[in-house]
Amino acid sequence: AFDVQRIAQASAKHPKEASIKYAYGTAGFRMKADLLDCVVFRVGLLAALRSAKMDGQYIGVMITASHNPEEDNGVKLVDPRGEMLQQSWEAYATSLANAADDAALVKYFEDLIQVAKVDVSKKPKVVYGFDTRPSCPALVAALEDALGACGVEAINFGLKTTPQLHYAVRCLNTQNDPMARYDYGKLILACDELCMLTIVVKANIKKLSPIHVDCANGVGAPKLRELAKYIDDVLDVKIVNDAVGVKGKLNFECGADYVKTTQSLPLGSTLQPGNRACSYDGDADRIVYYYVDDESNFRLLDGDKIASLAAMFIIDVVKAAELADQIKVGVVQTAYANGSSTHYLEKTLKVPVSCVSTGVKHLHHEAERYDVGVYFEANGHGTVLFSSAAQQAIRNAEERTPAQAEALAQLKALTELINQTVGDAMSDMLLVEAILAHKQWDLAKWDAAYTDLPNKLAKVIVPNRNKFKTTNAERQLTEPKDLQAAIDAEVAKYSSGRSFVRASGTEDAVRVYAEAASRAECDELIVKVVELVQ
Ligand code: NG1
Ligand code: ZN
Asked: How far is Cα of residue 514 from the mean position of the Cα atoms in its chain?
């Protein structure tokens, strides 16, 4: 049972900022770090309740603001299977964060026990991690105050990437050894296995040229450095932007989000034509690849390209394993996916493609409907899910020929290599590297599968973004009235034109996306649509 008096006393040290209205959004709570003390404390209380509700299973708490500036921070909860917090609890998080004072907080806490039918006899368990931000230690202390006041059995998992924390939560609740991926032992094994298999297929397989990894001066840098030691037989890693803890460096003009949105090289990169490179974001759950072509043009290989590569490869291996009848591959995207990628997936690879609302939880959920569900946001956040039926089919398949046996071993290795709980820059990188090594492809060869339509993303500040209501996986506006018809009329003037407008879930702004057959048309179209929105 919870001691509400103890909770109220602890809460007194973490008073609410009176003027702020907090909201648990797509990425949990995220804002300037100096406004977060009371929020993190209250998230700690909610984590305790959530764990008790889930029969005392471990709940994860991650303190990070991903690709956002260094002075920001954020906090989010991870459910027992390593997934994002269940949606109905997001509203509880918001209400708890906004309780006006200690008394209101305790009152809401007690009400929530009733409303959510929390079994208070269960001992709550929480595991928490944090990124490299200077504000983390103080926020961790606020979290620990809450966990202490709730009598939680807590594990401090220390400095971690977001996907490491997600994976640890799942492992702790399934009795697997959380140290496995924590130490990268398991991951390296699978990677070796896949690469060894590659060597078997092609007798004289060559190691690819080094991969230059921009770690956004964040937690990915020390974590990748650990991993790189173990895999140098198969992959050479060159880390750039590893100035962790140097003031002002985190995510500054570097990292996956910067590279994707500006479509240019990160600060500190001296990429030559033919070099291979990728960028992680500040908490290493996103990754995008890029290179400079022979004409010195910057070429981006984003989440759509990674999804296409992964789907192409897995379809081939499933076929080689003679499991194509039992294991159907599907791809999940959002409206931000480049039209060319959707066309390539549907027409060339002939895989079903679903489009869902922005936000990883929507993609993850939809991907679970496939035997193998490949999901990626264009910004490079994604992974591959193998259903339990698919994993069973792979385990139980009879090996009839050496080629088929090899394909089955590759599939098994893939299920291990991939972090199936959530998008994971390091794990995704190994997936891509394994495929490219297997194929002996450089980045230009991968890029050649299809050509991205020129595209652009704009941000418009409006008086009230909540007036923008969407339907059809956010691809059309229902409100403000008549705006969609006006957008459609503009789009119709451009070849292969597409544009849509939606309110951001993480920023106080409206996003406008446009793509068209040429760069000039795309640039013109987005200006027109931005004008309509303003
Ligand atoms: P919003 O701000 O709702 O567009 C952004 C990203 C999402 C997702 C979330 C969470 C774009 C266009 N949007 O959401 O894909 O990653 O942040 O981090 O990239
Ligand atoms: Zn991130």
From this structure: 23
